[in-house]
Specification:
Chain A is mostly helical and about 300 residues long. Chain A has helices at about 10-15, 25-45, 60-75, 75-80, 90-115, 120-155, 160-175, 180-195, 200-205, 215-225, 240-295. The radius of gyration of chain A is 28 Å and the shape is elongated. Chain B contains 17 helices and 20 strands. The longest helix of chain B is centred in the last third of the chain and has 41 residues, at about 580-620. The chains are: A mainly alpha (about 300), B alpha+beta (about 625).
Amino acid sequence: MASASIPGGVAKKKMAAHGGFLKHAGYRWLKICSALMLVCIVSYLFIDVSPRHNGGSWYGYALGTIGALLILWLTMLGVRKRAMTSGKWSLKAWTSAHVYLGLSLIVIGTLHTGFQFGWNIHTAAYALMMLVIISGIFGIYFYATIPQALSNNRDEMTEAQMLDALRSLDRQLHEAAQPLSAEHAGLVLQSLEQNPFGGGFFQRISGKYPNCATRHAQADLRRERAYQPRMSGKDGKFDDPLDKVDALLEKKEATLARVRRHLRLKSLLQVWLFVHVPATFALIASLSAHIISVFFYW
Amino acid sequence: MTFIVRQIAVTADGREIIRSNPFDQLEIGVGRNAENPIHLPDLAVNPDHAVIRQLDDGQIQIESNSGQRFTVDGRSKMSATVHPSKGAELGFGGHVIAVSEDPEGIILTVKRVEALSDSAEARSEGSLYTLKGLLPGKRISAWGFVALALAAFLIWPIYTWATYRGVEERPDQFHADTMWTSGALSEAHHSLEGDCQACHVDAFVSVRDKTCMNCHEDDAHDHAKPDRLLTARGDPEGFAKVGAAFAAAFNKPRGRCVECHTEHEGAGAMQATAQKFCADCHDGLDNRLVDTKLENAADFGESHPQFRPAVLIRPGGKNPPRKRISLDEEPTEYNGLKFPHDLHLSKTGGVAQMGRRLGSKYDFGPSLVCKDCHTPDPKGVRFEPVDMKDNCSMCHSLAFDEIGGTVRTLRHGEPGQVRADLRAYYRSTGPSRPINLGGMKRRRPGATNDNRVASDYARAVKFRPSRANLAISQVFSRGGACFDCHGVTPPSSRGKVDYGIKPVTQTDRYMHKGWFSHEAHNDEQCSSCHNAETSDDARDLLLPGIKTCRECHGGEFAKTADVPSTCAMCHDYHADDGAPWLIKEQQKDKQKKTERAANENSLRKPDQKLKVKIRKRKIASR
C-alpha cells in the first residue's frame, strides 16, 4: 500500500516497503489499542455506577464521547488515503491505527451500552457500528491474504497484458476460423462476441461462469468431431482448421480462467468496502440521531 | 456497368487505406470465402452469403443464397432491390457495404464497422477490473443510507414530537419518538411508555420536577426546602466539579427528582436509594448547613447520632408539648400515671401471687410478663395504649358494692360519676343494724344500754349520707383506688371533695423521623431492649439507645454485622407516617410470594377434584 512513491531515502523506502499495516512499527497500534481496551474493561468493572452501567452515566458519556470521536477520526481515512505520504504519520501508520482503533471500538462501544439493548435507535446505531467493524475485519482478512494469491495468479502479467492476450487470441481465432462452415464459425463467433468482463456480481465474486461461450464452443466442436475420422492432407500433415481452432479455444479458456480468478480476487478486495463505506455513512447519520435524540429528550 | 469494390482497412494508428478493384461482371458474390469478389473475413458471414447482380433497369438486386439474412439500411432482408444512384447501405455481420454510383460504375465500399471480437473493443481500462457497474456505487448508497437514517431516526420522531405538543394524552398507536427510548420504564411508569412528552416536554430541556409533580403532588413530600437541600449538598469538589460543570453546560439543574429516580433502567421496580445519597448531605451536614438542628450521620454502625425521642413535657391535651432529647441525657417522662414496672414484673411478692391466683382466669403465668398488660397494634408495629378496663382491672378492681351477685364498680375516667355513685350508695343504704336493737336477742342488761344502742343507731342513720364525703376523700387520697395509679388534683377548697385526676398521655411513637417495627423484632425478648424489670418509677423512659441497636445492626457495608442496614431501612426521603419505602417493598415481595404459593395450591386443587371425579366414576361403573 504505502510502498508507492516514497520520496525519502533508500533506507526509509526499505523500512516502509516491508511489513504490512498490521505489523507496522512492531505492532505499535496493536499494543496501544490492547492497553486502551484493557483500561476500559477494568474501569468498567471497578467503577460503580448506580443503579447499573448505562450510556447515560458519566462513565457512559465518557465512553460514548471517546467512541463518537473515534468513529469520526476513523472515517477520515477515506480522505487521508488519497494522499500517500511516508514518515511517522505515513498512510501506513494511519491505516494501522485505523485497523486497531477500529477493533478497540468493539470494546468501547459495547461497554458504552452497558449491555442494555432494545428496539431503539441507540441499539440500531450500535448494530451499524458492529456491521462496519465486521465488514472491516473481512477487509483486514482479504488485505492480508489476497495480494499473495493475486500475485501468484497474475504470474507477472499486468492487467493490460491480460487484456492484450485475450485480444490476440481472439484475432488468431478469427483468423483460424475463416475456413470453417457457417455453423462452426457461429460457435467461434459466440466466443468472440462474449464479453470476457461480463457476468453479474455473483459470477464475479464466485468466479463461476456457467454460460462461458468459449467453453461451450470448444465442447460443441469436440462433440461434433469426436467420431469424425482424422484425415491427413496431401503432404501427410493434419491440416484440419478445426484443430487449430480447438487449440486456440483451449488457450483462450486458460487465459479466461486466469482473468476470472484475477477478477474474483480483485472484487473480494473491493467488495467489503461496498458494505464498509455506505454502512459508515449510515452509522454517522444514526450516531447523529442517537446523540441529538439524547439531548432532545434530555 | 462495372462493379468497383473498394475495401477500406484501418491501420493501428487510425489511418484508412482504400483498395479499389473493378469487377466487370453482372453478378458478384459476397461471402467469407476468399474466392468471392467481395470477400468479408467475418465469422458472422456465410462463406457464400449472397450475390449482387445488375438488373436491366440499372438497379441492383441483392439476394441471399445461403439462407442467412442481411440488412438494407438497417432492415433485415433475404432479398432486396436498390437503385445505386440513390445509394444504400448493406449490412453483412460486422461489415457494411455502401452502394453508390459514379460514371465509372457501381461502387461498393466495404468497411468493417464492428470490432473483430468483444475483447477488441475499446475499454476504459481503469475500471475494467473493478466492481464498477456491478454493485450500486458506494457514494450513492452512502448518501442514500444517510438520508434514510436521518429521515427515520431523526426527522420522523421530531415530527411526532411537534405533532403532539401540548396534547393531553396521545392516542394508543405507534409513535416514532418511542424509537428514541433508552430502555423500558419502571413498573410504575409503564403506562407512559408510548407518551414521551409526558415527561420530556420541551426540546433540549431536561426533565423538570414540575412534570413529576403533575401526578405525585400527594405522595412526593419535600424532604426539605429545595434551597436548603442544595446548601446541604454543598459545592461539588474534585471530580464531581467536572461532572457539575458538564451538567451546567448541558442545562441540567441540580437537585431534580430524576437525579435519584433514574428512569429507563428496564422494566421492574425502581431500585432502593443507596446510602451514599443520604450521606452526600448528612455526612458533615453542619459544616455546610450551619444553622441545622440535625446531627451528622453517614453510616448507622459508625456515624449516627444517639436517638433523640420526642419526650413528653407535660401530659394532657390533644397535642401535648414534646421535646426531642438525646437518650444520652437520660431523659425522664411523666405521663400522668404511677406504675413501678419492677413491682409488677417481680417473680415474688404480692403482685406475682395475685397473678398466680388469677392465672386460670386471665391466662397469667407464674408471674406477670409484658404481654399481660401490653397489646400490640393490628400491624404489630407498635403497642396499643394501656387501657384500664382491659389491662389493669383484672387486679385493680373498682368494685364497691354487690347487689344480688352483681358487682358494682366505680366508673373509670369520670370522677364526677365516682362521687355521685358513692353518694348514692350512702344515701340508699343504712348503717349496719346492731343485733341488740329491739327483739329478744341477748343484750347487756339495763335500759340505759338499750337506749344508747337505739340512739347511736338513730344518729348513724341520720348521718349516713354525710359518710359519702369521707369515702370519696378516701378513694382519691393515698391508699385509695384512684390515687394508686393516678395523680390527683386536690379539692378546690377545704371541706369540698371535688378531687380531679391529672391528665394522662400515653406515647405510642417516640421516633417520628425513623421507623421501628416491633413485629420485625419478634425473635427478641422485650427485655433485650427494654430494661423494665429494674424500673421502679413510671417516669423512667425505657427506650434502648443506639448501642443496643448496634448489637445487631451495622452500616450498609458492615460485613461483620448481623444485619447490615442502609439508611432506607429506618428512614425515608419522602417520609410519611408509614413504613419507609424499602420496608414496604419488602412486604410487597413477601405478599407476592405468599400469593404465588396460594395460587399454586389453588391450581393444584382442580386437578385433585378431577382425580376424585374419575375415581367416583370408576367406582360407579363396577
